Amino acid sequence: MSLLNRILPMCKAYAYMEPMIINGTIDHLKYGATGELLCQNIRNEWLYSNVTSRDESVFQFCNVGEKYFNDILSLKDPIMNAKQFSNNQLPFSFADSRSLCEQPDLMDSGVGDRKCFSPKNFTRFKYFAFCIPEESQQFFYHWQRQRKIWWRKFSANPGRFSLTEISIDDNGQESTEIRAEFEWGQETIETIRNVNTKMFDSLEPAEQEMFFSRVGKRKVLPHVVESETSLEKACMVFLCDGYTELPYHNDRREVFRFHRKLAPYKITFAAPLLNAKRADELRQLSIYLGLNLKKSGISTLITPHLAKKSLESQFTDSDCLGIPYIAVLNESTLDDGILGLRSIETTLEEKIHVANLTSYVELLIKNY
């Protein structure tokens, strides 16, 4: 059974996503409640890397309901804002993480393993760097490394990501691809191009004038480096990357293991089977602790079956959702306030006091 044939039933059962097939082609990915959280975290991390933490100013834009065959047309309005906010001085950049796009031509249409990575309709993640002409080549090499580092940082298997050799097309445009290795072969997940000034060639002189910027007092046409992937590709990459099979008695069980920054839920609660009174007290405690975690911005899953199922069954449900931490409550927690914090990575528990739970989990989630 192929990797995706094993993953897709889990994705549907645990509300991650389901490919929607129309006329024999995957039209789009339909996300469930858990999948929406995963996508939100992926987008947040992409924005942090491509916008928030950049040295230069990066301006976001989005083309809602507009389809452009030439990306430069979509930048006509954002460029005016960028020039105003940056005093018309290079470098500056643009980022688009919300535009809904459609594949121009779906070749060898079907629903094989690769098709979930490239549905007909997708949300693009695209970055345009408007560089100082003399620095564009150096930035092109730098940006390749940065984008590869980003993918590797969240992966359980960083070695699966690689950069292709730089190719040059008929127009002299350099490009390279980031690829991920899966059991069916390599999947292209991001493309980086050194466009230089070629994206302005189709414009009339009057339109080109709009894009001229300054380096000091010198007036120049920016050299452009761009990178492009999609939310759907990123989601599929991390679902395939996080899927693993673990020994379970005489069999194996399937789980997801996500980086804690991407995990839809960061923490949940579990407790052993107890009598009704003590179980209810532990449920009330889990609700109180869960609300404190949520108020601190930590995505927390408070389950109704706490102390109603075996601990092993609760751990299995949590692992299938890819939750990195479980706060394990027991009868003694009600007396001394000590709980066990179980990690999905090690399956070991460390003992901490309930009063320190929120601050400690905040610290764990903050670090990469």
TrEMBL record:
Give start and end of each Anticodon-binding domain: 279-361
Recorded hits in SUPFAM superfamilies, A to Z, give: Class II aaRS ABD-related (SSF52954), Class II aaRS and biotin synthetases (SSF55681)
- GO cellular component labels: mitochondrion
Q: Which GO terms describe its biological process?
A: mitochondrial DNA replication
Q: Which InterPro entries match?
A: aa-tRNA-synth_II/BPL/LPL, Anticodon-bd, Anticodon-bd_dom_sf, Gly-tRNA_synthase/POLG2
Q: Please identify the protein, giving its name as recorded.
A: Anticodon-binding domain-containing protein
What organism does the UniProt record list as the source?
Macrosiphum euphorbiae (potato aphid)
